[in-house]
Amino acid sequence: MNINVRWANETDAENLMLLNQEFNGVGLSISDVLTSIRQSKELIALAILDEEPVGFACAQWFNSFCYPHGQGEITEMYIQEKARRKGLATQLIDFLEQEFRCRGVKSVNILTGRDNVQAHKTYTRSNYMKKDEVVFQKKL
Question: What are the structural domains, with CATH classification, of the chain?
Fold first, then answer.
């Protein structure tokens, strides 16, 4: 079993499109994904198992006058069912955290569903602590 995590690039657009469709059910085109890769400041890490892309994680980072150091957020994380429980999610987290450190980020948040017990376990193993916060959302 050969496991690798690396930055996604333009040649990964089709695989990212398919993985995102499985994860979010969003029907983006390859062109949409390519545009995002080229223009967004989003960090996109790709998980590879035996030369096949099987998951991804997306992250954002920013600086604010409200905090003395950069802030980060892992916004999306998905591993295909066939590739789960092999340590890929943990490797994706470690990979993104390393980049965050290089950018001066000192605090990272991860949002996940209340009922996503497996994700909760993964994040806890990576030393994330559950916070008692409420998220509000509004569609514009």
Answer: 3-125 (3.40.630.30)
